């Protein structure tokens, strides 16, 4: 019987998932590795994931290039996001410029950690991979707070770019990052047994980690869309910018559908275990962020008016 907080059903759907490093490390540290079968039984040759139905072999094994498609997608995405950061910085008078730039910076940081956690470079269940994946999880949770925080700032409930905006904005970034990273590490290494071990081991059960890595991102994205709909249609009385947000929502949903449904199909039937669908999800997620930039740009001013004021 599957319970709320079980990661096991996700690992059946996903081919290469960064979420696997925490429970996999927990299984090995608590001598529950009997749960690992097939390719996952030998850590030195195990593909990314826990008993994956399709797994990409580690780099160098049988000529494997690791998850090469996603590696390229992450590298190109980093270039795109860096350009977005530069363009955002140049829009000096735009509402929420500082906050939106922080969101872009956080997304940028998730990309190299995603590359390492899903790239089949490191031994599955190793200390290095568990730490990298924990940091990646913390960055993802913080990124989705930054996304939601930008929507809150757009309502002008507090003045953007001021201490009253930046201090709580940064506080929650640090809070989400620290909490998610610590819980991920505790699940992986069982420091305190507060967040594990899972019972039974094969269920890979952790409600806090499940909420922060699987529920929170989706909830934050939905709340962001609802708030921006209110800002654009209710406060600005505009329609055209709303199409950017609709397009971004569609791209984000497609990225998740690809990650959960298409990835295994590509791995098994298209590439013969050479690549999976994670590169498609990465491209779609970066496209989502890019569209969000143009959506933000469409509802903000680029610079202050340079006309001098002459009193009458």
List keywords for this structure.
312 residues, mainly alpha, 63% helix, disordered C terminus
Topology:
Blueprint: H1 8-13, H2 21-29, H3 68-90, H4 97-118, H5 127-154, H6 163-189, H7 207-235, H8 240-270, H9 278-298
Protein name: Chitin synthase export chaperone
GO cellular component, one term: endoplasmic reticulum membrane
InterPro entries: Chs7 (IPR022057)
Q: How would you characterize this protein structure?
A:
This protein has 312 residues and is mainly α. It has a single domain (8-298), classed as Rhodopsin 7-helix transmembrane proteins (Rhopdopsin 7-helix transmembrane proteins, Up-down Bundle). It has helices at 8-13, 21-29, 68-90, 97-118, 127-154, 163-189, 207-235, 240-270, 278-298. Helix 3 packs antiparallel against helix 4 (97-118), helix 3 runs parallel beside helix 9 and helix 7 (207-235) runs antiparallel to helix 8 (240-270). The longest helix is centred in the last third of the chain and has 31 residues, at 240-270.
Give the end-to-end Cα distance, rounded to a whole number of Å.
78 Å
**Mass-distribution shape:** globular
Name the structural class. mainly alpha
The Cα radius of gyration reads: 21 Å
Q: Which CATH-level-2 architecture? A: Up-down Bundle
CATH top level? Answer: Mainly Alpha
Helix content: 55-70%
Instruction: Outline the low-pLDDT stretches.
Output: 303-312
- State the major sheet: none
Mean pLDDT: 80
Number of helices in the DSSP assignment: 9
Strand percentage lies at under 5%
- CATH homology-level superfamily: Rhodopsin 7-helix transmembrane proteins
Q: H/E order of the elements?
A: HHHHHHHHH
The CATH topology annotation reads as: Rhopdopsin 7-helix transmembrane proteins
In total, how many beta strands? 0
Protein name: Chitin synthase export chaperone
Keywords: Membrane, Transmembrane, Transmembrane helix
GO molecular function: unfolded protein binding
GO cellular component, one term: endoplasmic reticulum membrane
